[in-house]
Amino acid sequence: MSDVAMDAPYRPAALDRAEQGLLGKPIDRYEGPLKVSGAAPYAFEQAPEGTAYLAIVTAAIGRGRVTGIDAAAAEAMPGVLKVIHGDPRMPAGEGNSRAMPTMGGDEIFHYGQGIALVVAETQEVAREAARRVTVHYDEQPGRFDAAEVEVQQDHKLGFLPPVNRGDLDAALAQAEVVLDRTFTTPIHFPAALEPHATLAWWEGEQLTVRSSNQVIGGAKGTIATALGIDKDRVRVLAPYVGGGFGGKTGVGQEAVFAAIAAERVGRPVKVALTRRQTAYMVHHRSPTTQRLRIGCDRDGRIGAMGHESVAYQNDDSAFLEPVPFGTLPLYAGEARRFRTDLARIDLPATGAVRAPGEAIGTFAVECAMDELAEQLGLDPIELRRRNEPTRDPTSGKRFTTRRLLDCYDEGARRFGWDKRESTPGSRREGEWLIGMGMAAALRGNFTVNAEAEVILGADGRATVKTDMTDIGTGTYTILAQTVGEMLGLPISAIDVVIGDTDLPPSAGSGGSFGAGSACAAAALACEDILTELALRMNAAADDLRLKDGAVTAGGRTSPLADLVRDRPITARGKTSPGKESQATSQASHGAQFAEVAVSAITGEVRVRRMLGVFDIGRVLNEKTARNQIVGGMVWGLAYALTEDAVVDPRNGRFVNPDFGEYHVAVSADVPRIEAHFIEEIDDSANPAGAKGVGELGIAGSGAAVVNAIHNATGVRIYDMPVTLDKLLSSLPPV
User: Fold this and answer.
1) What average pLDDT score do residues 110-126 get?
2) Alpha-carbon torsion 228, 231, 233, 234, what sign?
3) In angstroms, rounded to a whole number, what is the distance separating the alpha carbons of residues 291 and 329?
4) Neighbour tally for 46: CB within 10 Å
5) CA neighbours within 13 Å on the CB side: how many for 56?
6) Which of 286, 319, 584, 663 is the most exposed place for a label (fewest CB within 10 A)?
7) 634-667: per-residue pLDDT in tens?
8) What Gene3D superfamilies does this protein map onto (predicted)?
9) Cα separation of 548 and 533, whole Å?
């Protein structure tokens, strides 16, 4: 096995030869025909004969204990197989890749928590029976109002410890110009198109779970832990996942419930959460309060920056939104304080939603930078340019690749930034006030363990195998492109097998590390295959030239099938973090631009166009990368204008736990969006040279919209989202 830890920059030479011409090209999705024809099996589909249906009885109080359950009416219904409650293996909340939360007790941590199961012959019977289960409670006062809960500064939650460098307060006191603003962001739901669903069945002591999950290697261990069995008895399948956005990185209650129910009734069982259940049983993004302080001289040179926040979590989960994560390496400044305080609240768990930290942290820092630029009389891009660091200003580590200045320049040129009116509210078209805004985008890049196996068969076809998942991001396609580029094969000669924990372990889809890690592992496996091919050609590996299923060396050409014949070549590649990963500061970067029109009469905001330019290392597939970026920009637009999960502070219920009232951006809201790339291969990131793209698009895009609203109207809003009621009272006269 070729095992490369990132102790130093590394790049497989065959990736650069580009003889097959696959890598980076906008190739259509490998699995596209299966998806559009309905043949791709998702978690709830193609169940075995005899599969029963599971419905979940959920808590009707926000805090307290279950004192009794009366299931007689449900059990009497025709078609009901079993009502299950009190099983000590039943989890009380959403799990993650390391552990499950509290198990099997009678405590209620939040409204909507799963507390009993109904298994029936049909979904309709299961759901009706669940409504007939009567639950008795000892209801207790809950902490439901974020404005009233206690804030803890001394806590151990989360993976981002406080950062204190220099004396921030003293530096701010001495600064010639100081900006001090507080921003708030609400709860956000990771509302994927495919429901959170699981199909589970037992064959003797072996459990198979087909689940809508992003990180199936972690899910396997979590499910085994919850059930109290060895993880070798669990197999998790997720060949197709219809979106996740972080909400499917952990194991939901429904997966363990389905496994328990299948064991108890002796039949396969499947379950899909309703949309309202998803709001309660899947983690959401924490609401935050963020104080952003910046001190600089009159030329805009920043000497002090503080990003101090409060994020929220219940008593049953260990995650804490890393709000200032994107701020750490973004701008220069000697005195620095970045901290996220904790407030405990009796609501469903908060967790990692697309771009944890940066997605909402960029609202504060990028809107504050825009306001500071106005205060200084500087163009917002010029202020950022004057504070572009040469090394990571927090850790002192060197950057690997950082093309942020180029993103600013190229984005400004393409967008027509020079036509922006610097005086807010000065451009009108009838009742519409027109404005432009911009913001920086940043998402940290991570190197993680990943393995892949590649088999070059007797027919000259290649098969790549890894337990990586594809949540709509293009994993199938970029794995095929990587192997095709390395071995000189067209996409049609490559089979991609993923989404099965019996395959070599990978990173899974999360953190924007999946593509670079999985493709790097596949490329390393191909390097070993090239070594074997060189032996069979009696040539040096570096002299091989591969294209269209044939290999050439020393003036001789041979079809791959002739070289392989009855001796297929199997190789395994592994990549992992190392000294280079630890010694460098790695991130993907970008510049976001937006133009909006705001009605001076109603306060309605229409986003007219958006454009972004991004530095993501090697572009593995231009089309799938652009799709991810554009999707992120759309989500940022929705964060800026509509998305807001509202909690009733009297009982801990969501007022709007569905798409009828929780407003995501729809087609009518989304303008023409352009996404462009500045490519510089990052050999320090991973052997594929690719940095994360999936979460970068959401960072900064919402702030660009909010900054454009200010440029159009002269009104600054610090409480997201910017709804028309917040604008109306401050709009200039018509």
Assistant:
1) 97
2) positive
3) 18
4) 12
5) 32
6) 663
7) 999 999 999 999 999 999 999 999 999 999 999 9
8) Aldehyde oxidase/xanthine dehydrogenase, a/b hammerhead (3.90.1170.50), Aldehyde oxidase/xanthine dehydrogenase, molybdopterin binding domain (3.30.365.10)
9) 15
For 556-585, give one letter per residue: b (16+ CB within 10 A) or e. eeeebeebbeeeebebbbbbbbeebbeebb
The predicted pLDDT at position 191 comes to 85
pLDDT tier at 368, thresholds 50, 70, 90: very high
Say if residues 135 and 69 touch (Cβ distance below 8 Å): yes
Both structure tokens of 267: 């039949």
Distances (CA, A) of 527 to 134, 273, 388, 481, 521: 62, 44, 38, 15, 10
Instruction: Give the tokens for residue 498.
Output: 């993923």
Residue 464 forms beta bridges with which residues?
A: 454, 496
Q: Report the C-alpha gap between 438 and 704 in whole angstroms.
A: 4
So what's the pLDDT on residue 97?
A: 59
Q: With CA atoms as reference, report the closest residue to 415 among 167, 591, 212, 239.
A: 591
Render pLDDT for 318-354 as a digit per residue (tens, 0 to 9).
899 999 999 999 999 999 999 999 999 999 999 999 9
Task: Report the CATH number of the 2-39+447-577 domain.
Answer: 3.30.365.10
CATH numeric code, 353-445+583-728: 3.30.365.10
Q: Is 450 helix (H, G, I), strand (E, B) or coil?
A: strand
Per DSSP, the three-state class of 351 is: coil
Per-residue model confidence as pLDDT tens digits over 421-480:
999 999 999 999 999 999 999 999 998 999 999 999 999 999 999 999 999 999 999 999
Quote the CA–CA distance of 639 and 644 in Å, as a whole number. Answer: 8
Domain 2-39+447-577 shares a fold with domain 353-445+583-728 = yes
From the list 396, 219, 355, 464, the residue with the least C-alpha distance to 692 is: 355
Stretch 502-531: mean pLDDT: 96
Active-site pick, 358, 580, 643, 695: 695
User: Is residue 679 classed as helix, strand or coil in its secondary structure?
Assistant: coil
Domain ranges of the chain: 2-39+447-577, 353-445+583-728
Please count the other Cβ atoms lying within 10 Å of the Cβ belonging to residue 535.
11
Distance CA 262, CA 75 (A): 17
176 is catalytic: no
Model pTM score: 0.97
Burial class (CB in 10 A: 0-12, 13-18, 19+), 678: buried
Mean pLDDT of the chain: 96
pLDDT of residue 511: 93
